[in-house]
Specification:
The structure is a single chain. By secondary structure, this protein is of the alpha+beta class. It has 11 helices and 18 strands. The longest helix is centred in the last third of the chain and has 27 residues. It starts with 14 loop residues before the first strand and ends in a 5-residue tail after the last helix.
């Protein structure tokens, strides 16, 4: 649905509202039943948070950490390199492959036990190969997290085992997962049901333990996690009818109850998203806003347009409450060049909540009135006109040849 087509306005003041609220908010949709200490639902395409519970609360995040370990390996471009297992990697606690010191495997193959069965020894072997040592690799993990905007995360291990200040947040893990899903090869790995990999010593059969893949329509993955400090955790993703959703639950509980609850929490969150949100095109690149005069020019006007397309998931209540606010002057000031930012278009559901915004730019330019441009205008519109008239008069006086 194209919402901007429903908007009409006349520029009158510097900041003003176009139209009115379409209707009052519909009755609020019931939030999902979630027991996790921290949880979030994020749209995979836009990164918009659709629902959250303590999404920025710092919590232990267990083996969901391995999402970042896997992503860094894929981004490294070193998947065909041979990893030699250290004694440090070999002595990691369960869950583990059972790697032995000196064993050699392809780096890309280690990503399957890492993600499908959460092997801690594989995580350390990967970290030491890419970073030189675990500490340096964790520095790489934290740098990448900060680049992505996951600023409330501190990785101290590549496998998520409880250690010092190792933590993340539901929101940060969703940000990391969203980037991972866009990384070439990641979705193929996490959706693999079973994989056999070979080292120089033996063959390993790796089975995917992610129940969501078998129990939820459209499930993509992503990663389970559990430690005594973190409780049961899960970062999930599913796609239906072109909508990709990412869910995160941290601390869904302990023991058998918590083990089952992480799946219940995840399904409840994803169901809430698919049942209550649809994509809407709020505006399209080049949509015309208005034509405004340009002061200090030669009576020029410029056409203003939207710079970019916004497609956003909205609930029914949000769509019905949505209105548009323009932040732009009623008159521009010369000089104006094509593409100059003139103002902003904001999409709001109430005075405090802006769900999206985009720049408004000039579709054409307007020169500033000054001595140079005045002289150019004089030449163009008066002197050239006079010259043309003289030539026409001379043509009348000259007899035709022959």
């Amino acid at each position: 649905m194209r919402l901007i087509k429903r908007i009409t306005a006349v520029l009158a003041v510097t900041v003003f509202i176009i139209g009115t609220y379409f209707t009052a908010y519909a009755e609020e949709t019931k939030a999902p039943d979630v027991k996790a200490l921290g949880a979030v639902l994020v749209d995979g395409k836009t990164g918009r948070v659709l629902w959250e519970k303590n999404a920025d609360k710092e919590l232990a995040n267990a083996s969901t950490t391995k999402i970042m370990t896997c992503m860094l390996a894929l981004e490294s471009g070193r998947l065909d390199e041979t990893v030699t297992v250290s004694s440090n990697a070999a002595i990691q606690p369960k869950v583990k492959m059972g790697l032995s010191t000196g064993e050699k495997l392809r780096l890309g193959d280690l990503l399957y036990p890492l993600m499908l069965q959460s092997s801690n020894d594989a995580a350390v072997a990967i970290a030491e190969h890419l970073g030189g040592d675990v500490e340096s690799f964790c520095d790489m993990m934290n740098e990448r997290a900060e680049e992505l905007g996951a600023v409330n995360t501190c990785f101290e291990t590549p496998n998520g085992l409880d250690s010092g200040n190792h933590h993340s947040t539901a929101y940060d893990m969703a940000v990391i997962a969203r980037q991972a899903l866009q990384t070439e090869g990641f979705k193929d790995i996490i959706s693999t049901p079973q994989k056999e990999i070979k080292s120089d010593r033996c063959t390993y059969s790796v089975v995917n333990k992610n129940r969501l893949l078998r129990e939820y329509d459209g499930a993509i993955g992503i990663k389970t996690g559990f430690t005594g400090k973190a409780g049961n955790c899960f970062v999930g993703a599913a796609e239906r009818d072109g909508m990709q959703l990412i869910s995160v639950v941290l601390g869904s509980g302990w023991g058998n109850v918590g083990k089952e609850r992480k799946w219940i929490d995840t399904k409840n969150i994803l169901n809430y998203g698919f049942e209550n949100f649809d994509y809407y095109t709020l505006c399209g690149d080049g949509d015309i806003i208005a034509e405004i005069p340009v002061e200090k020019s030669y009576g020029k006007k410029i056409k203003t347009v939207v710079s970019g397309t916004i497609i956003l998931p909205l609930s029914k209540a949000e769509k019905e409450a949505l209105y548009v606010e323009l932040d732009m002057p009623e008159m521009a000031t010369a000089p104006v060049a094509k593409g100059d930012v003139i103002g902003r278009i904001l999409f709001k559901t109430d005075s405090e909540t802006t769900v999206a915004e985009c720049n408004i730019t000039a579709e054409n330019g307007a020169e500033k009135k000054n001595m140079k441009t005045t002289a150019e205008m004089l030449i163009k519109h008066w002197i050239n006109a006079q010259k043309s008239a003289i030539l026409k008069d001379n043509a009348k006086l000259c007899p035709n040849d022959g």
